From TrEMBL:
Keyword presence, Transcription regulation: yes
Pfam families cross-referenced by the UniProt entry: HTH_1, LysR_substrate
Compositional bias segments (type: Basic and acidic residues): 201-210
Chain spans, region Disordered: 201-223
Low complexity biased stretches: 211-223
Residues in HTH lysR-type domain copies: 9-61
Organism encoding this protein: Stackebrandtia nassauensis (strain DSM 44728 / CIP 108903 / NRRL B-16338 / NBRC 102104 / LLR-40K-21)
InterPro entries: LysR_HTH_N (IPR000847), LysR_subst-bd (IPR005119), WH-like_DNA-bd_sf (IPR036388), WH_DNA-bd_sf (IPR036390)
Keywords from the UniProt entry: DNA-binding, Transcription, Transcription regulation
Protein name, UniProt field: Transcriptional regulator, LysR family
GO molecular function annotation: DNA binding; DNA-binding transcription factor activity
Length: 308
């Protein structure tokens, strides 16, 4: 159907049923002049007359009859597929799968009950993402949305902008020298062994939780490698290394053998919602809008943007 406009085909098919310009215009909510204009455009593209019209009657020409029999069914199938696809993106009934790394932040937790109350026909499913692969589940279609920390270093993803900010704390074993401190300076991280996050997590993203240097440029010794939050906590609890977390992380992931100490001199962590570019369907948009509204109530400035 290259070169044929949807409006032209609708006029042609309706006129072939009504055989009357006035009734055709009424059915399509168009003027008779617009109906005639669209029909002339279609005939020009085809290169022949589709209807014989006089002051008394309108009839299909042999070319019009053949075009109707060949193009009509194809157009109706295409139109039905289009309408079904559009309805599926607008409908909120179904399942919305949300992934998160570590503990879900407060903005996400606040949006979930609001979403379920507003859209009872949509079931929410939550999945914990590996630290070593925070973006892969989106690309593989395993989740529709993911709540992650910035930066989002993947050009195939889009972001809702910062939905929450939080100071950073360092998780250390109760046997670590820092465990008795009320807070430490960022430069003191050079005295620790930092747990590494395994690839394929991008290096820039890993730097937020597992920096390789202090803000002053001093290298931070490397410790063991981990893929999941539970692996990280096990390494910390056994005093094999340390890692940075948002300061609300201990509220949902406390551990009797781990102490979380505030770190001065580091920028706040920023969390966001991300989705695969071009796949922000109605459920994704509705949840993101609620999360953005929750963030704005908390005073966080947000702006939807592509990944860095």
């Amino acid at each position: 159907m290259a070169g044929v406009e949807r409006d032209e085909m609708e006029v042609f098919l309706t006129l072939s049923e009504e055989l009357h310009f006035g009734r055709t215009a009424k059915r399509l909510f168009l003027s008779q002049g617009r109906v005639s204009q669209l029909l002339r455009g279609l005939e020009h593209r085809i290169g022949g007359r589709l209807f014989d019209r006089s002051s008394r009657r309108v009839t299909l020409t042999p070319l019009g009859t053949r075009f109707l029999s060949e193009a009509g069914p194809a157009f109706r199938l295409l139109d039905a597929a289009f309408q079904e696809a559009r309805a599926s993106t607008r409908s909120l009934d179904g399942v919305l799968r949300i992934g998160f790394t570590g503990g879900a932040d407060l903005t996400l937790l606040d949006a979930i009950p609001r979403f379920q109350e507003r859209y009872p026909g949509c079931d929410l499913e939550m999945y914990e993402l590996k630290l070593s692969d925070p973006f892969g589940p989106l690309h593989r279609g395993e989740v529709d949305l993911a709540a992650v920390c910035e930066p989002v270093v993947d050009t195939g993803l889009e972001s809702a902008g910062a939905l929450a900010t939080a100071p950073l704390v360092v998780g250390v074993s109760v046997a670590h020298p820092f465990a008795s401190r009320s807070r430490i300076a960022a430069e003191e991280l050079a005295d620790c062994r930092m747990i590494d996050i395994k690839e394929p997590a991008p290096s820039r993203w890993r730097e937020r939780s597992s920096p390789t240097r202090t803000p002053g440029g001093t290298p931070i010794p490397r410790g063991p490698v981990a893929c999941t939050v539970q692996e990280v906590l096990s390494q910390i609890a056994t005093n094999r290394g340390v890692m940075l977390f948002c300061d609300n992380f201990p509220a949902y992931n406390g551990h009797r053998d781990i102490t979380f100490v505030p770190v001065d001199g580091l920028p706040d962590s920023r969390s966001t919602l991300i989705w695969r570019r071009g796949e922000d369907n109605a459920r994704v948009r509705a949840f993101t809008e609620l999360a953005v509204a929750a963030a704005q109530r908390d005073g966080v400035e947000t702006s939807s943007r592509a990944s860095e």
